[in-house]
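User: Can you fold this complex?
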Amino acid sequence: MGCLVFKSGERFKRCWQTILAGAPMADINAAIKAKMVQRKWAAMGVLFLVALIFPIAPGVESWMASEATLIIMYIMAAQGVSILTGYTGLVTVGHGGFLAVGAYASALSTKYLGTDLITGIIVGAAMSAFVGWVLGLVFLRLSGAFMAIGTLGFAFFVGTVVNNVPIFEGREGISLPKNHVIGFEIGDIGFYYTALATLGLTTLFVSLLVRSGVGRAFMALRDSEKAAEASGVNRVFYRTLAFSLSAAVTGVAGVLFAHYVNYVSSEVFADIWYSVDFLVATVVGGSAVLLGPFVGGLFVAFLPTFIELFVDQPGDLAFIIKGGALIFVLIAAPAGVVVGLVQLFRWLRGKLGGDTQ
Amino acid sequence: MTSHLRCDEVTVRFGGVVACNKISLDVEEGKVIGLIGPNGAGKTTLFNVLSRFQDCDDGHVYYRDQQIDAKNTHDMIDLGMARTFQNINLFAEQTTLENILIGAHHLIGNPFSNMLWLPSARRNERELTDRAVEIAEMLNLGDELDNPVKNLPYGHQKRVEMARALAAKPEMILLDEPVAGCNDEETAELKEIVKRINTELGITIFLVEHDMAMVMTVCDYIYVINFGANLAQGTPSEIQSNRDVIKAYLGEDDE
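Assistant: Here's the predicted assembly.
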């Protein structure tokens, strides 16, 4: 990682030198891009630093740390969706299903094998990745709206299975013991830090993935399947791989969710609205940018609490606002809020720069 | 003469229409071979059969005497065969560099170590990037590396397509109408590039093209097809004076 950051820094310095020497437009574009990359990592660093000291800061009550844990899980789930929908171009309305797969895999392993949270995360990720792989093969020929409907069907399928197959204990649910990490019992704050560390890892993973040759293959399939295949991209393998990795990341969010409430039941995990929420979070924030799921996840997860601070009887107000935000973003900034804001900022700067001359 | 790509009596039917009727041709290694024919002659269909974008109903295709008509499309690159598209088929939102790098996809090694940027993958990725930059410079795209290709002029985009094909380290490139829609200046530039790819890199070229001036000056040998069947074959000068070819293009004389 360090090497990568250093490399872009080098390039950045070189670009500024070329600008000072009166460089052509392409070099200036490259310099702006390099600067953006630096800003992105700076923003990410600040965000993690704030998140790190947040629960022990004065004036922060314990419910706030709990709320923050929920937001972290939403961000992670949206990261999973962004791999498939943002980078590979396959719209999914069924990632709530993978949330459930991860949650139940870890819950069953905790109940019957007595595993701790870390093992649970690994088991949940592996199980989700496997189910994602199989689903990717099943949906090999679907795309566009058909893919959306297919994945929606998958979420319903998972809901039906956990409701009816005895081992999942349906509406009764499975209660989980207190959370342990390598032998130590952890409370709310400990759980928050575990979730935060996991989010750090998934963020690192996604950022490495999308810059790699594999990420390039995903985006190639998104932009033109024909040209991708002509360039030697194995469509079957990379589509299934995208499904699998996407499912694994969302599955880990599911594991955290299960251990966060210490309980899994069909009432919680057969809920189709998770799938919709994750898609909204990904699209609103920006599905093909690293910061997108952060903005979108924060928005979707925090909105209900935020409304309750001001309105006594919120009812379905959160749903209405989410729907409105989705429509607004799709019209005003189809690439998501993050990209929209960057474009707005550049436009404003261009205006101001023009005025001063 | 060594055969690089060969097809034997290839037949393709679309319902009742016979697009290719027992077409045979042979692409000699290290040469520039052209395929021409009037509109609707079956050029594109044959091109797609050779690049494995289209199955043939009858006949066989051989790459270096290895039968390939049952192979996957994405396996062609591993054999050493790359192609371009007539209607530019680039990844519009991505930069020139990223587009060229996709061409080198089959060289990324193990996908799992690649996506985690393990040391070997990091080294490999740096080599691929260096090579992509080299190719871009060879095709006069050095200034556009960080520019999204949708911002590039048409002639530049055509060259990005070629750069992407070259990034695969191919032994043979199939060009589908490389100068279609280009102005004179762009055509001249692309012609020069095709020649350089052939002579400097020793890559065999097979091209389908409508621009006769381009075909006659660039190709070493030309195949002509009409109504889905072989019509003539020969050197450019032979083709230019071939009565059947003139008839096919200009129509029958009434006398």
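Chain B touches chain A at residues 51, 53, 72-78, 82-83, 85, 89-94, 98, 101-103, 105-106, 108, 111, 114-117, 121-122, 125, 128, 143-147, 164, 168 (CB under 8 Å). Chain B has a mean pLDDT of 90.
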